[in-house]
Every structure is written in structure tokens, then in C-alpha cells.
Amino acid sequence: MPTSPENAEIEAVFGDGTRDEIERARPTSLRGEWRRVGGFLRRPTLPLMPGEGGDLAAAPARIARVFALDVGIMFVLIMIAVVVVALGVDLPETALAGIEITPAIVFAVVVVAPVFEEIIFRGWLSGRPGHVLALLALAFAAGAISMFGPQRPLLSVAFGLIGMLGALAALVFLWSRPAMGWFARGFPLFFWLSTLAFALIHLGNFDPEDTGGSLAMLLPLVIPQFVLGSLLGYLRVEIGLWAAILLHAMHNATALSLAALAMSAG
């Protein structure tokens, strides 16, 4: 049977199903997972149906292995920060420093932030039309609401509903559509732009006056977020958005626990 133009483009970008299955054989050990992370980050590649087709029973173990890598990197970065401080460099405090850790703060940091940040920064990273259009619809709703605000509440509500219904329609009617070929070809660029944007947004956790507004001082402060964003992007593509949300929540819970221990020790 002759190959249709659409299928020919898909095979040219993603390869045939057999090769894709072989290349995406799931790692079963800590070392194997970490090697797969390294290979992915050296050359970010988008599969035909990102986050699907994997063994869900193996997903918790895979997430745990990536979390172990995340914790190890966090430990190294903390040790580097300790050495830098010992050398007399004053590092600016984060937004969590000195804050009272209430149940509301825990919920916001461990649940709300991971869900919304993963949807915004990695929900569309699948390259699937439904996911990309859903995010654009939500962005339209958010922009309209911010534009009209409480001054014109009816328009805010109307555009908000239009955006949410548009997002829902995109997810429902385009759910089975695979990743777009042009997105797959440019995936490394999209992946690193998403990771960089995720890191830069966390510059808001620091007061620029503490560093004199110098980018040379500010950018190293978000290296942890850049590393985390890389791992989250890996899980988003390999397992699914829910896996990235879960790892993000685990990371934030760990960071919050360390902040609480530091405050209690002080």
C-alpha cells in the first residue's frame, strides 16, 4: 500500500513504529535512567506521541530514579553555595527565607505552583495540536481578563469562558492527533526555550537590589531551576505531564522542608 504524504512526513520526522519502540525501550535501573536523561539532554528528541505508550506500572520507579538524580544535584549545588558563602560572598535570600510556613504556603508551593507551572511551561511541549491550541486558548482568556479586569467584569467572565471552552474543545477534538512534524523538527529549540523561561521566571524569588541588579550575579541563582526544568521536560516527554507535576511537587516539598529545617536551626 503506498504511503500517504501525511504518513511519509511523520515517518521522515519520527521514524517507523518498530524503530521508535526500540529507541524508547524503558530503562530498568538507576544507572540506565540517568544515562537516558543524559542522552536526552544532549539531543532532546520528541517521540510521535509524547508521554504515551509507556508502561504506567514502571512510571513510579522511573520518577523516583529521576527524583534521586534531582536530590543529588541539589546536594551538590547546596555544597557549592556553602563554599561560596565561606569564601565571603553574600548570596541573596530567596522568597522562602524567613517566611512563616503555614498550611496555605505548603499547599501553594507543593500543589498549586507545580500544577500551574507545568501546564504553562511544559503542557504544550508535547507538540500535539490539542495541547498547543489549548494553551493558546487559556493564554487568550488570561490576557482578556487582565485587560478588562474588574472594571468590565462581564467581558472578563465572557472571554474567560470562551478561552476555557476553547481549551476544552481543543483537548477533546484533537486528543488523538500526534505531535506536529514542524514542532518535532524544532523540538530542541522549544525544549531549551521552555527550560530557560522556567528558570528566568524564578528570578522573581530574589530582590535585584541584593545583587545590584547584575545579571552576572542573578543568573547563577536560578541554575537549580534550570536543572530542574531540564528534568521536568524529560519526564513530560517520556511519561507525561502528570509525571512532571509529581516530580515538581516532590522537589518543592524537599526544598520547603530544607528551608524549614534551616529556619528551625537558626
Polypeptide structure, described:
By secondary structure, this protein is mostly helical. The chain has one domain (5-88, 101-128, 178-265). It is built from twelve helices and no strands. The protein has helices spanning 5-14, 17-23, 30-42, 59-86, 103-122, 129-148, 153-173, 181-185, 187-201, 215-218, 223-238, 241-265. The longest helix has 28 residues, at 59-86. The radius of gyration is 21 Å and the shape is globular.
Assess the beta-strand content as a share of residues: under 5%
Main β-sheet description: none
Q: How many individual helices?
A: 12
CA-based gyration radius: 21 Å
Can you tell me the overall shape? globular
Structural class of the helices, strands and pairings? Answer: mainly alpha
Q: How far is the N terminus from the C terminus? A: 72 Å
What's the domain count? Answer: 1
Low-confidence stretches: 16-23
Name the helicity range.
55-70%
Strand count: 0
Q: Write the element-wise H/E pattern from the N-terminal end onward.
A: HHHHHHHHHHHH
Mean pLDDT value: 84
